[in-house]
Amino acid sequence: MQSINLPQLAPNATTTRTTRRKAxxxxxxxLLIQMATEILAASPTLRQKANITLTDLAxxxxxxxxxxxx
Length: 70
Fold this sequence. Notes:
This protein has helices spanning 25-42, 44-50, 54-69. With 70 residues, it is an all-alpha fold. The chain has a domain at 25-69.
């Protein structure tokens, strides 16, 4: 049986730390609302299982727009 060797890091390879960017809570929440709205709008079965109506999705979109204004 032949062994498989994983490629090794180059001897001069260095790792650099990246600074963590500050989270933007309202923008992140707006993005998550948009993603969920798109998924639920496309899937009537999932909407029915979650007991969410199209009116609920419209209300969520209004909240998303308010979050983007902040």
